[in-house]
């Protein structure tokens, strides 16, 4: 059996268990109602130190203009709070 088939089966099994547990359907297998944190960089405050990109490579990248840019809203591993608190100029905010 292929690995992807196994993963899909595991997801269905997990959702089936949640349904059996009586949880509301809108919370199952859907991120439509999930609040996503969206990081934003204030380019006027950013000094391009790269700290945020080191902490979360999947979300921040310092580009040729010397400023950090948000390249993805979510890396899947964190909520970017560490990048926010580590920015020396408080250029990052979460909306
Ligand atoms: S940590 Fe702050 S100042 Fe440094 S690159 Fe990121 S946004 Fe810019």
Question: What's the arrangement of secondary structure elements?
Answer:
Layout: H1 3-20, E1 39-41, H2 51-55, E2 60-62, E3 68-70, H3 81-86, E4 92-94
Antiparallel strand pairs: 1-4, 2-3
The protein binds iron/sulfur cluster.
Iron/sulfur cluster binds at residues 41, 46-52, 60, 62, 68, 87-89, 91-92.
The largest sheet, given as strand count, sense and whether it forms a barrel, is: 2 strands, antiparallel
Question: Shape from CA axes?
Answer: elongated
Q: Largest beta sheet: what is the strand line-up?
A: 1-4
Low confidence ranges: 24-34
Q: What is the number of E strands? A: 4
- Topology-level CATH name of the largest domain: Alpha-Beta Plaits
Kindly summarize this structure in a few lines.
The chain has 95 residues and is α+β, with helices and mostly antiparallel strands. It contains three helices and four strands.
Model description:
With 95 residues, the chain is α+β, with helices and mostly antiparallel strands. The protein folds into two domains: 33 residues; 61 residues, Alpha-Beta Plaits. The protein contains three helices and four strands; from the N terminus they run αβαββαβ. The strands form two sheets. Strands 1-4 form a two-stranded antiparallel sheet. A two-stranded antiparallel sheet has the order 2-3. β2 and β3 form a beta hairpin. The chain is elongated and about 50 Å long. About 12% of the residues have low confidence. It binds iron/sulfur cluster (SF4). Iron/sulfur cluster binds next to α2 and β2.
């Amino acid at each position: 059996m292929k690995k992807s088939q196994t993963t899909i089966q595991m997801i269905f099994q997990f959702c089936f268990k949640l349904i059996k547990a009586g949880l509301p359907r809108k919370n199952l297998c859907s991120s439509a109602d999930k609040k996503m944190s969206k990081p934003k960089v204030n380019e006027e405050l950013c000094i391009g130190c790269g700290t945020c990109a080191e902490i979360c490579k999947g979300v921040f990248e310092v580009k040729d203009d010397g400023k950090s840019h948000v390249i993805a809203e979510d890396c899947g591993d964190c909520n970017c709070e560490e990048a926010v608190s580590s920015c020396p100029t408080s250029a990052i905010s979460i909306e």
